[in-house]
Amino acid sequence: MANLKPTDGETPAALGYAMPAEWEKHAATWLGWPHNESDWPDKLDTIRWVYAEMVRKISAGEMVRLLVRNRAEAKFAGSYLKRANCDLKKVQFVVHPTNRGWTRDSGPIHVVRKHPTSNIQHPTSNEETAIVHFHFNAWAKYKNWQLDTKVPETAAKVLKRRLFDAQFNEKKIVIEGGGIEVNGRGTLLTTEQCYLHPKIQVRNPGMTRAQYDGQFKKYLGVTNVLWLAAGPVGDDTHGHIDDICRFVNPTTLVLIKETNRRDVNFPPLAENWERVQDFRLEDGSKPEVIALPMPAPLHHKDWRLPASYANFYICNACVMVPTFNDPNDRVALGILGELFRDRPVVGIHAVDLVLGFGSLHCLTQQEPA
Which of 5, 207, 281, 313 could pair with 165 in a Cys bridge, judged by C-beta atoms 3.0 to 4.6 Å apart? Predict the structure, then answer.
């Protein structure tokens, strides 16, 4: 499929497309096999086993489309998955050379056409599902991203789907999947720290809040954009929403809360709690907001790591939640277990994973059914 630069009458929103919520049924989850040593110094082999566990859990309910650099790497990855008792019939190896494996941010962001009589997405054919190519530049921080930014093009070819080329004022729009969160009914969450900071990791120089709002509406079919302030210290992405605040259903949010006033995260997270009191959903109603605890600080050498229970991933078979050998693991799993009654909530050990400055949600990208 061609990478189409939409005219005003042919934007995803104008054609009836919108981004569905993560809990809606998936056809597959996209992952990128880990190979970049710099993301997990001295831990890469450990991370491969974490991936294998993720694939085993996800593939119980949907396909896993696993990006590999070549056929040799597919065979290598398959040896880990087989030993972890994954069903390899549920894994599709997609050859696409990558710089690193943070598929939430570089992978294909899907939109689907709404059913004309309902607010619920019902993709019924290949034409009903499309991909928006928001461009990736390694969080405006690293120099090696030229392979990753082309992942949506490969996905569109593999799936034979229309690809919308996201542009504003003749420039490519840089948005990462971890920087946005939707309820599938018209509301999108993001943060000022990530997209509006004037100097640090500036994705789209000169773009204003109103212009971001307009592009989210045009390309993702939302009608309502809500901005939180900032995220926890140590986040390499500089404020991704998926470490801070998540929808668990169309009207309920979980928001991370630091209770230790001496912790460096207390001020920014407290400001989010002030802001969320004024939030209104697409229909004007107030969302219910439930606190998720923070684990005790995790460090590697001099680095504070962005450990957060908000970085969970909702797949068909379960909700996978990062855990950190912390007393609050059980608390977070209990809270999310009460909120997700339609599928089990399971913990995945993420102390090694978060050394790469991200965890489960950062590594995954859902493909709607």
Answer: 5
In terms of residues, how long is the chain?
A: 369
- Spell out the residues 6+ positions from residue 25 whose beta carbon is closer than 8 angstroms to its own: 316, 368, 369
User: For residue 202, what are the contacts with CB-CB under 8 A and spacing of at least 6?
Assistant: 140
Could you give the number of structural domains in the chain? 1
Angstrom distance (rounded) from CA 127 to CA 113: 9
Residues with Cβ within 8 Å of 157's Cβ and at least 6 positions away in sequence, in order, are 1
Quote the CA–CA distance of 4 and 12 in Å, as a whole number: 11
* Cross-strand partners of 314: 319
Inter-helix orientation angle 71-83/44-58, to 10°? 70
The span from the CA of 265 to the CA of 281, in Å, is 27
Q: How buried is 90 (Cβ within 10 angstroms: 0-12 exposed, 13-18 middle, 19+ buried)? A: middle
- Max CA distance (Å), the chain: 55
Domain of 251, CATH number, reads 3.75.10.10
Residue 81, classified by CB atoms within 10 Å of its CB into exposed (0-12), middle (13-18) or buried (19+), is buried
pLDDT digits (tens, 9 = 90+) for 45-86: 999 999 999 999 999 999 999 999 999 999 999 999 999 999
Q: Are 112 and 121 in contact (CB under 8 A)?
A: yes
Distance CA 79, CA 84 (A): 9
pLDDT in tens, 174-231: 999 999 999 999 999 999 999 999 999 999 999 999 999 999 999 999 999 999 999 9
Rg value, the chain, Cα: 19
Give the helix/strand (H/E) hosting 105. helix 103-106
The range of the structural domain enclosing residue 95 comes to: 3-368
> Which tokens is 1 given?
């499929």
How is 198-267 classified by DSSP, letter by letter? SSSS-SSTT--HHHHHHHHHHHH--SEEEEE----TT-TTSS-GGGTEEEEETTEEEEEE---TTSTTHH
Closest residue by Cα to residue 292 from 317, 319, 316, 262: 319
Phi then psi for residue 114, to 5 deg, are -75, 145
CA distance 43 to 25: 33
Closest by Cα among 40, 160, 148, 137 to 103: 148
